[in-house]
Specification:
Order of helices and strands: HEEEEEEEEEE
Oligomer: single chain
Number of helices: 1
Radius of gyration: 23 Å
Distance between the termini: 53 Å
Helix content: 10-25%
């Protein structure tokens, strides 16, 4: 009898585990939207504040291009970073872009840069952001207002600035 109960328990555990794995939802898909090549001004620091070390990186210009959008990055924005002693930096870049057909779009890009260690104790680097777009509601770029976006940097020795790749979460 105990052997039969043990077999039933093992079988039940197997079935429950298999059905739990079947219920894992599929990850959202993403589509490439644009690559921004952002030129930067001279970085300055506001020092250690009550919230951490504040650094400001002026955004001086650049270009962007994707399958359905292209243009320039306007001078006058900045990347405001707040770093703590644990190696984590909160990023908030606020700037505007202008499409080749003259439409101005405002961007607020928030994210995290983390220098830490992985589960094995090896150094790891994480840098991801979530830009939010404010495009004119009556423009052909209004679709930017109604989606979530993710961006990640790519580093290029041939470009003096930062390159950001942006995807729309489907």
């Amino acid at each position: 009898m105990k052997k039969g109960i043990t077999m039933i328990a093992v079988l039940l555990a197997f079935v429950l585990n298999a059905s739990a794995q079947d219920n894992i939802p599929e990850a959202p898909q993403a589509e490439f939207v644009m690559q921004l090549k952002v030129t930067l001004g001279e970085t300055y620091s506001c020092g250690e504040t009550q919230h951490g070390r504040r650094t400001v990186i002026p955004i001086t210009g650049g270009t962007f291009e994707g399958p359905n959008i292209k243009g320039t990055i306007l001078n006058g924005g900045a990347d405001y970073q707040l770093a703590n002693a644990a190696g984590r930096t909160e990023v908030e870049a606020i700037y505007s872009i202008r499409t080749d057909d003259g439409v101005n779009i405002h961007i607020r890009n928030r994210g995290i840069i983390a220098n830490s260690k992985d589960a094995q104790g090896n150094p790891s680097f994480y840098f991801r952001c979530a830009p939010q777009f404010e495009a004119p509601a009556d423009s052909k770029y209004a679709w930017l207002n109604n989606s979530l976006f993710l961006c990640a940097p790519s580093f290029s020795s041939g470009f003096q600035g930062i390159v950001l790749n942006v995807w729309r979460v489907k």
